[in-house]
Amino acid sequence: MNYKLVTRKLSPYGYIAPAMAIFAIFLFFPFFKTIYLSLFKTNKMGQAKLFVGAGNYSELLSSASFFNSLFVTVVFVLIVVSVSMLLGLITAVLCNQSFPGIRIFSTAYALPMAIASSSAAMIFKIMLHPAIGIVNKILGLHINWISDPRYALICVALLTAWLNSGINFLYFSAGLSNIDEVIYERASVDGANSFQKFFRLTLPGLSPILFYTLVVNIIQAFQSFGQVKVLTMGGPGESTNLIVYSIYRDAFFNYRFGSAAAQSVILFVIIMVLTLCMFRLEKKGVHY
Amino acid sequence: MASLSLVNVCKTFKNGQIAVKNFNLDIRDQEFLILVGPSGCGKSTTLRMIAGLEEISSGELWIDGELMNLTVPQKRDLSMVFQSYALYPHLTVYENMAFSLRVRNVVKTEIDQRVRKAADVLCISHLLVRKPHALSGGQKQRVAIGSAIVREPKAYLMDEPLSNLDAKLRTQMRVELSKIHKELGATIIYVTHDQVEAMTLGTRIVVMNSGVILQAAEPKVLYTNPINKFVAGFIGSPSMNFIPVWVERREERICVEFSKNRLFVNEECAKRLMDGDYLGRRVYLGIRPEDLHETGSKDQELKLNVEIKEVLGSEILLHGKIGRSPVCARLKPDFPSEGGKEISIFADMSRILLFDMETEENILYR
To answer: Per residue, what are the HEC states of B114-135?
Structure first.
């Protein structure tokens, strides 16, 4: 009897244990290890050697390079999120009609989500090449897009925005198909024009999806790495040195694992605070 | 308010399906016009063409003397109540009702005044801050009507607005719609497949089938003088009984015979049958359940084999067979009858109708 009771009490934990083990190995352990490392100076093997407490953090907060990384990241996130969401929304609205060839357009707009960021970056690199690139040929310009600090960040951001627009297109298409067609018919009879229908019905109807997409896009944009690695390597200078790339460089080029861990913790805090703020704002602007 | 004219209006869908054929109708100012017919008869398509939500394939639509074929719905100045209510889910009841005024940039004070007035008329003032998901079916229906009436359009279009309500609420809302029509003096075009709604609400009813108008007339005329068997069967609940009969001459009088039953027709009826050369031929005898009585003369007697008795309280419905034809009779509740018994019932011969076997046209149509 006692044995049965114990088994019954423990069996739920047995079911949850495999998932917890995977989370523990790949999520919780690295997370706590990062926090631990951020409090130490490390050797080249990444082993904690000298406890410095908040030393790594205070170093970062007095570093111009770190603040530059933060600034570049914020600009990057703003461009990526706004352009990718706008692109996804416009293409989804355009494809929310029935006309011949709609599937071709839908596939084309959703395709970026199936492309790896590094391979897209390789293709962009060729397209943006100052001598043989198609962009300069079409525009009739001679700009060194990737090597010019004025354009490099915009180029990387636009590439990322295009890559993210595919999945946004998919989210928004799903959201649009959930809006009852009959309310548009009523709006037409009520006298609403296309813009009024879009701003008064479509956008509020999409607000739950818009919110979800915004949160996911912001987190994704903060974590962008591949395209920077392939396209600009954080340069020219530090003009595209996004915080994730800065973490990578500090850890694997400069072997300053403690500083990289501290930057990771700061990035985590920024994303967490932003997400919490957005969930607060959700109550005001999202209609379920 | 407005008058509307539909001239030879046709609707053919892209797949070649013809929904409406040569629809000709003048709708008078302040008329409560009902489009009625079975599912798929083209009544909703006609309404949507008037609203501008469906393109008119051919023909003309005139509203107050203006050709409206190419006018977008926004410019037609009509209001529509949809079967599913079509309330904007993210807006409150107040905002739903104010929507059509806001998109027309009407000043705020006037919007407020009109919304509150309409809410008072429909008794939904206490619901103005709620969202549609927090409303019952009846309340949603009122909000949909309220949203339509705040704008004071040229005409109201209603597409089966009561079909989602339960029977009790539907009866209640029917009365309210009648009141609103009287109060507003509005032109209303109302689509339904429920002939009870059609009879109780309409000042004129248009019966449609397979995309064509079969008959357009006042409810009483439609009930007493239907143009054909379809209209006769569609109007009235329970529907009219149809019995195939032989037209014969017996004892120097014209009668109809079937399954050992014989009914002598009146003089006018006899004249029509003789004029139409129906003697010795088969026709349909049409008689409504309420025109079969408990008492009468031998000339009117029919033998009904009762199968099922339905007790409705104030009356009973006896379902059974006369010969091989299924028949329903509406009788007084105290009439002694049981399932499985043969009883005598008596037809009111002044109320019978006769229909041609082939064309199904009413031989007695006036």
So the answer is: HHHHHHHHCCCHHHCCCCHHHC
